[in-house]
Design a protein that fits this description.
This protein is an alpha+beta fold. It has one domain. It has two helices and seven strands. The strands form two sheets. Strands 4-5-3-2-6 form a five-stranded mixed beta sheet. Strands 1-7 form a two-stranded antiparallel ribbon. Helix 1 links the parallel strand 4 and strand 5. Helix 1 packs across helix 2. The chain is globular and about 35 Å long.
Length: 142
């Protein structure tokens, strides 16, 4: 049996905190983006977001994913990189309606990391990175 490195997608994850608010987001980059939604939930995605105010407590996944999409479009444009679909594998936390910008920040930061590029991003006021990782999805056996 031979073990070779598989061409599997790299994953990125980040956790950000600000007081009682927090978010954990994990993504991988998929096929080239040719239209439709640039952010998609992976088939086995885990989504557990709690709204922190009256408005955000009514949000559906599409509302939260719009923040991820905003960050993705920004990263691809700023890096002059070909657009790829962003698969969300994990999205959890407690956020208010005004915290969608945090999802954009997280997505842009992770996409730059997955592309091995630097992206100058302004910090999101009061939010601290609690965890940040980029990893490969293992080995394939033949």
């Amino acid at each position: 049996m031979t073990t070779t490195i598989a061409e599997k997608p790299r994953n990125a994850s980040i956790e950000l905190r600000h007081g009682a608010s927090w978010v954990r987001l994990a993504i991988c980059l998929a096929e080239p983006f040719v239209g439709g939604s640039i952010t998609r939930l992976a088939q086995d995605a885990r989504v557990e977001l709690e709204g922190d105010d009256e408005l955000s407590s009514c949000y559906a996944n599409a509302n939260w994913l719009s923040g991820v999409a905003s960050g993705a479009f920004y990263a691809y444009r700023a890096l002059n990189a070909p657009r790829r679909v962003v698969l969300v594998t994990d999205l959890a936390g407690r956020l208010g309606a005004s915290d969608i910008q945090v999802l954009a920040y997280a997505a842009a930061r992770m996409i730059a990391g997955l592309l091995n590029r630097e992206l100058n991003l302004a910090d999101v006021d009061g939010w601290q990175v609690a965890a940040n990782a980029i990893s490969n999805n293992g080995l394939k056996s033949n």
